[in-house]
UniProtKB/TrEMBL annotation:
Domain N-acetyltransferase: start-end pairs: 22-168
Gene3D superfamilies hit by this protein: 3.40.630.30
Name under which the protein is recorded: GNAT family N-acetyltransferase
Domain of life: Bacteria
Length: 179
């Protein structure tokens, strides 16, 4: 469970304090403020973000991986949370650092985590969502084998603005899961 390897050569591993600089770079763009419940704008904020992922992994409530390439630096994150073992579902989220975008890191990581969730955790359904004004996140979902299911109107609120969210899902018995 600690490390997963993508066929594309990326390694997914647990977060550790040495990743604080990469987390700080990832959360530097303004739109990343929306991806966390507390500020990640200094080293202490980055370390707190990492500590939360380590704690949640230990509690088995959320599984978060740093996605790395050969040099070992965290280039992105794939997370599985809101796991409901009764209904066998979970929620997937992901991000990459600005410099890592467009390299296939997010879809590779999401595909590996999906296989792990269907196998190791025995989940049946994985869900994810993105703002409808985020076509890059939509491409990640599609390249990861998640089918579009529809739009949830006004689901997210950032400041005074509400955003529609496009929902995607992948099932354990989808054809995409056949190797």
């Amino acid at each position: 469970m600690d490390e997963l390897t993508a066929p594309e050569g990326f390694l997914l591993r647990p977060w550790h304090p040495d990743d604080a600089s990469a987390v700080l770079r990832a959360f530097a763009p303004e739109e990343m403020d929306r991806q966390t419940s507390h500020p990640v704008d200094d080293r202490l904020g980055a370390l707190a973000w990492i500590a939360e992922r380590v704690r949640d992994r230990g509690a088995r409530t959320t599984y978060s991986w740093a996605v790395t390439a050969e040099e070992g630096e965290a280039l992105g994150c794939v997370e599985l949370n809101l796991v409901n073992p009764v209904h066998q579902i979970g929620w997937v989220s992901y991000w990459t650092t600005e410099s890592a975008r467009g390299r296939g890191i997010a879809p590779a990581g999401v595909r590996v985590v999906a296989r792990w969730a269907f196998g190791e955790l025995g989940l049946y359904r994985l869900e994810l969502g993105h703002r409808t004004d985020n076509p890059a996140s939509c491409r990640v979902a599609q390249r990861s084998g998640f089918a579009t299911e529809g739009v949830e109107r006004g689901k997210l609120r950032y400041g005074d603005v509400r955003y529609d969210v496009e929902r995607h899902a992948r099932l354990a018995d989808d054809d995409v899961n056949v190797d």
